[in-house]
Specification:
By secondary structure, this protein is an all-alpha fold. It has one domain. It contains 12 helices and no strands. α1 packs parallel to α12. The longest helix is centred in the C-terminal third of the chain and has 24 residues. The protein starts with a helix and ends in a 10-residue tail after the last helix. The mean pLDDT is 89.
Length: 203
């Protein structure tokens, strides 16, 4: 899952928004490197990613994409599922997406001042400068997000034109998301309550 989904799930589970983003930039075992609250958020992020990667509905969605996009199907779906979430936002959250995004940016900025983690600060600056959380609602925002991701990878890749691979399967992918996301939400809530769950320890 991508930024919007991770922040939404952190909000729904009462876990750290900053921790939900740090899960993308912090590698290896935690073991007291951060506060307990942040580590719980990182841990939840990792478990969410693991659950997502092996879910049958997500695997079926990835299989819809052909070469050369199949290799990058996980990245493409992360972004596109944020688009699906943004488009159906009122189903999932009591706040408008505009209000949620504004509050999330404010909270993340407050946490960044005490966290002093360069990777987190860069990620937050990137999100705010492009207003990513709102931009996911439209196809132009998805294109910009994929272009940004394409430029961050060290090797040549087709991500910048990834929307062309996704749009022919638009209806199926929205159906995949609507079937998958309630299960992910239930999983996140259960995992957030289980502080004894093992850390997958991404490297």
């Amino acid at each position: 899952m991508n930024y919007l989904a991770h922040l939404y799930l952190a909000d729904c589970t009462g876990t750290s928004l900053a921790g939900s983003l740090l899960g993308d930039v912090v590698r290896g075992p935690l073991q007291g490197r951060f506060s307990a609250e942040l580590e719980r958020g990182i841990h939840l992020h990792r478990r969410i990613d693991s659950f997502t990667d092996r879910h049958p509905r997500v695997l079926a969605a990835k299989a819809r994409l052909q070469a050369p996009y199949r290799r990058y199907a996980g990245i493409l779906l992360d972004v596109y599922f944020d688009h699906c979430l943004a488009q159906s936002w009122d189903r999932w959250h009591r706040q408008s997406l505009e209000d949620f995004a504004s509050e999330a940016y404010r909270q993340l900025l407050r946490e960044s001042l005490t966290l002093a983690h360069p990777g987190f600060s860069l990620r937050l600056a990137y999100m705010r400068s492009r207003n990513l959380l709102l931009s996911y609602r439209n196809q132009a925002g998805i294109e910009r997000a994929l272009e940004g991701l394409a430029g961050r990878l060290s090797r040549a890749n087709p991500l910048a034109t990834g929307l062309d691979a996704l749009l022919p399967h638009e209806a199926e992918l929205h159906a995949d998301f609507q079937a998958f996301f309630p299960e992910l939400l239930n999983f996140a809530r259960q995992t957030a309550d289980d502080t004894r769950a093992p850390d997958p320890g991404h490297s």
